[in-house]
Amino acid sequence: GVCSSVPVPGGGPKRRALPRKLLEHTTFRSKVLARFPENVDGNLFDQDAVNMLCVRPGLSFRTRPLPPHFHSFLITREDFSRTYGFVLTFYEQVRSEQVSVAMETLLNGPSSTSSTSSSMDSLSSGGEYTDLCPPEASVRGVESAGGALYVSKALCVIAPLPFMGACRSFLWQLHRAVMSETPPPLPLESYVYNLLYEVPLPAPGRSLRFQGVYEPIVCQRPGPAELPLADFPLSEVIGLLGLDNLIQVFTCTLLEMQILLYSQDPQSLMCVSECLSSLLFPFQWQHVYGQGGGGRACLDLPQEANLCFVDIDNHSVDLPEDFPHFPLKSDLIQELMDVLQSSGVSAPESSSCPGSPRPSSSPCTPSALRRNSLEAQDRRNGNLPPNQAAILELLQKNETLERLEALTRRTGVSKERESKDSRLEEEKRAAILNAQLREVFAARFISMFCDYEAFVIHSCSDLETWLTARENMHNFDKASFLSEQPEPFLPFLSRFIETQMFASFIDHKIMSQWEQKEALLRVFDQRIEKKKLHQLRAPNLSSTHARRSSALLQAAQAVEQRYQNIDHTAVLPHLLNMRIGQGRVDQGHFPRLQRDALNTPPNSLSFLRRRSEHLSPAVIAQTNWKFVEGLLKECRLKVQRSPLCLLCSSSAPSMYSEHPNDSPR
């Protein structure tokens, strides 16, 4: 989809002048310009939520364009299904005469008549596909005063699974095609059509490669015996918070405390929250949160003594009172540091930036921060440290390498292929690191709840009786469980087993004797059985370390296998049935994509849709009844009390959700 709109701050024919200094700090209403396909069976398009979360905090105008930036969001529907959105926001030069005149009126005050104001109103309510940057329009208005005007526009991919890396790469390649002096090999419609209709979701345990505008894109999905898909980089969260702070916030999440995440960057908010959710295995929790505006002083913080405040931008965490530490926290931090260091990633125990609640081993001086920033920039630019630079200079003087390079030039081998391979290699290393870091957390829960089944109380012989009497019965022998735990674990465990996420986990365990096991529970029980088998064979301390190393190795091998042996390659983008002249790209301006071409699915999809439309009433009724039964079962397992996790952006409008089903992210 493409999101943009025309600003209308207030109403009436007379508007007060907007100071030029405030132009870049003023946001306006936005709307969805186009979406493809317009309708998807069984997946209604929530236009209000997508519009609000794509253009955050709203449409903006600039006299100088900001660099494009990427962010993602999540919408949780009433049936607990999730929809992920991935957004690339960039700035285009305004070339609409009406918009330029309207903005000049806002900046300089109403000059003559109400015609300008009415033109703004008509643009706001607008037609079906109003574009602020039509190529045929002349540039006047604000530009005549001596400067160009730029407006924000957003490209969004909506997906049922969080393939963040693949969607981000596709959006960046689309943007690159628009900004490049050389037009792309095919019209943009060909690449969008290919993604919509010809690129399938990879099956569990499989990998998929499809073609972007310039480079191939690979996405992979964990198998049934692995931890569930989580494509948000945990290493970035560690860099934002530090290991110590991450464990503290993770503990607050497990105990279902009130958590307030605060950042100016919406992608940092999404990354931190999704990574925290991915670490909860085998437990699940539908986080409920809203967006708030202003700084911390402007926020009405509920029960601040009970609140965990996480300032992501300043790398600091304020913990609530009477906070129990996670069992063996120092050992957990050491394991995480070992994994990071083995992957060549710096592993700060705590943040080395101002605002961190704990001191860091590295100095936090301006020169150190500046040096780290310059080194990071050098790495991004391809520069090497002094010792590596000397090695590179030695290799460049090697005659054999020079002959090989000349041979590759004669045979037509491009260096671009090397950059593509290095990018895919970097993606593979990041995916392996993510999987191994999550395995460290999963191993903690496997060790902590290895014997939990012995304390589950099975008091009913059938599901209906259990569902009816569940509210008045005990499903877990908490006293006996705590009596067998080490004393240092008790402050945390005594509170954790009282949480809703632990109660839901036990409920799923009891229901598994009558129904199919829930996916996370099945993986967790398999891991426990494997651990017990290892303990029988080698009941000593060394086997514990070997078992953990084996789990990390298996996780890395599974990811590497999927990257090295791609299971499925999607159909390549191709020309569509479009008229000559359609699909041309005007450099710097994202074009109006052809609706007819992008709203027409392939014949195979059309056949499936026609077949679904002719289902018998009995089949439809049976399907609907199963859906209603599932909802009733979920409602019975939910408890009204639910903690609140707020994600805040200082420039976002205030919006609070009081029910887990109505909380777009």
Notes on the protein architecture:
There is one protein chain. The protein is globular. A hairpin with a 5-residue loop joins strand 5 (69-76) and strand 6 (82-93). Helix 7 (234-241) crosses helix 8 and helix 14 (415-448) runs antiparallel to helix 20 (541-564). It is an alpha+beta fold. The longest helix is centred in the middle third of the chain and has 34 residues, at 415-448. Among the domains are: 2-161 and 590-600, no CATH class; 449-537, no CATH class. It contains 23 helices and 14 strands. Mean pLDDT is 75; it is low at 2-17, 111-130, 134-146, 352-392, 606-615 and 638-665. The protein is 44% helix and 11% strand. The protein has helices at residues 20-23, 47-54, 97-108, 115-125, 164-179, 188-198, 234-241, 243-254, 266-278, 329-342, 366-380, 386-396, 399-411, 415-448, 463-469, 478-483, 490-496, 500-511, 519-537, 541-564, 595-598, 603-613, 617-637, and strands at residues 2-4, 27-28, 31-34, 59-62, 69-76, 82-93, 150-159, 207-211, 216-220, 258-262, 307-311, 316-318, 568-569, 645-648. Strands 1, 2, 3, 4, 5, 6 and 7 form a seven-stranded antiparallel β-sheet that branches.
Estimate percent helicity: 40-55%
Question: What would you call the shape?
Answer: globular
User: What is the tally of helical segments?
Assistant: 23
β-sheet strand percentage: 5-15%
Q: Which stretches are poorly predicted, pLDDT < 50 over at least 5 residues?
A: 2-17, 111-130, 134-146, 352-392, 606-615, 638-665
- Main sheet summary: 7 strands, antiparallel
Q: Kindly, what is the distance between the CA atoms of the first and last residues, rounded to a whole number of angstroms?
A: 18 Å
- Average per-residue pLDDT, rounded, comes to 75
Radius of gyration: 28 Å
Query: How many beta-strand elements?
Result: 14
Which secondary-structure class do the elements indicate? Answer: alpha+beta
Biased composition (Low complexity): 348-367
Keywords: Guanine-nucleotide releasing factor
Domain UDENN: 11-516
GO molecular function: guanyl-nucleotide exchange factor activity; small GTPase binding
